[in-house]
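Exercise 3.2. Students should predict the tertiary structure of the chain below and write it as structure tokens, then compare their answer with the key that follows.

Predict this chain's 3D structure.
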Amino acid sequence: MKTVIAPIDFSGASMNALSFAAELCRRGSARLLVMNILKDGESESDPKEKLKSIESNLKKTFGTDLNCEMLVVHGDLVSSLKEMIVIQNPQLIVMGTKGASGLKRILIGSNTVNVLAKTTVPVLVVPEAAKFENFLLKDKNRIVLATDLDTLAKMDALDILKKIALLIVEPKVRVLNVRPRNTKIDFLKKMERNALLSIFNPEIESERITVFSSNVISGINYYLNKHSDTGLVAMIARDSGKLIQKHFTREMASHTHLPLLVMHDA
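Answer key:
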């Protein structure tokens, strides 16, 4: 992992996500690009002052060796990110989102949904209630990869997940498949499950998990409720628009404290 982009709007959610990005970059010796995106015609003077202060605070918190750059750009979020992706070739985008505890749902805003749908760079979606300090804890080392076990078009789609996992203290990956009770997976899905496990072995402890449920999101949440040591949830987006609209908005219920890594198989 060489470069991470963190777009911020100075909100609490985006600043919290920036802490995650900085911690990952510190551990992985990666470069952190912090972007503030302005509408055309907006003044840069105030954002630049804020970014200068943020850079100073990041260096105090995460160490003077943290390699970070502050950028102010004009345009809309998706177009600006696409341009930056071409220029900087990032391996990860880190974005914040607000969790609505009353609804017990992650209400991923339209900006985040658009980035997930219109870019192919992996995105780490960080709820405002999540704390980067959990990455320092041994008892938050479970990573849940929720998958339908369909064959990946690109086996390197999971490279970023392995890289992040190796930055966690004694990580353990659980390959989670949710399917209706009294059903079995076919030979190809068994082969895909074995292939997924092999990506993480031998460096990372990995295990297959099956949860029986007629609803995928309910099944995932059932497993997460049973394992409080989970620090990260990962999913693979195959069909950008439909899958993201279905699984990464109001349906990703109740776990507003867990970061969600969305990878693309396209």
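Discussion points: The first strand starts at residue 3 and ends at 8. The mean pLDDT is 86.
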